[in-house]
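Q: For a teaching session next week I want to show students how multiple molecules come together into a single three-dimensional assembly. I've collected the sequence lines for a complex. Could you give me the predicted C-alpha cells for the whole thing so I can convert them for display?
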Amino acid sequence: MEHVNYSYLILRWFSLVLFFVSLFFLVVLLFRYKKSEMGPKLKLQLLAGAGILPLLTLFFSDQTLLEGMKDDKFCGSCHTMTPFFKSITNPEIKTLSALHAQNHWIREKHCYTCHTDYAMLGGVKAKLRGLRHMYVFYTGQGDKRPKLYNPYPNNNCLGCHGGAIKYEEEATHKEISGEITKNEVSCLDCHGPSHPE
Amino acid sequence: MILLLVFISEIAGIILGLLAFFYPKAGVIFIYLTIGNFFIIAGMALYAIQVIKDLKKHKVL
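A: Of course. Below is the structure for the complete assembly, covering every listed component.
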C-alpha cells in the first residue's frame, strides 16, 4: 500500500484547475478584446485574465512541479537512474539505501532526502546538480553508471542520526567523532555500500 | 498590439505548463520552468506596461 500525499495531490489539482481557467480566460479575451470597445467590465476581465490568474498559475504550478521533482519515481524516470530506483524497492537488496527506504527509516522522498545537502542553499545546490544530470543525460553521456561529483557528505547522515542516543552512545562514533564531522572518515566506509555495486 | 502579444505569450507559457504536468519528464519540466515561466512573466510585464500607458493617457499617473 502506497502512502498518498494529499497536500501534494490538492496542490496538483489546484494548479491544473488554474491552468485551464487561465487558458480559458486568455482564449476568450483574445477573441473578445478585438470585437468590442474596452469598457470597464472588459478591463476588469483583462486584469483577472492577463494579470492575476497567470500570476497565481505561475506560483502554484512551479511549487507543484518542484515538489513533484522530489519524488523517487521522478528520479527513476531517467533510465540511468532506474537501477538505483529499483534497488531501493527490491526486498532482496539490503544495501544502506534499500534498508532506509524499505523500512521507512526515511518515510518518503528517499532519493531527495539523502542527496540534498542541509542548510539554506542545500535545495538550490541539489537543483543545480539535477541540471547537470539532465545535461549529461540528454547529451548522450548517460549510459555509464553515474557517480557522485563529490564524496558523500557525512552531514547528510548526521541530519537525522546526529544527536540520536543510539548513534551518540556507539563507542566507534565517540572515538572518531572529529573525523566524522570533518568528513575525513565516511559513514559509508563502515555502513556502505549505499547502492548495489 | 501589445495585448495581442500578452495573450499569445501567456497562452504559450500555459500550454508549456500543461505539457509539463501531463508529461513530467525532466527535460519538459525544465523547459516550462525556464521558457514557459519566461513567456508568462513577459506577458504579465507587457500587460503592466499597457496598464501604465493607459493610466498615463487618462492622466491618472
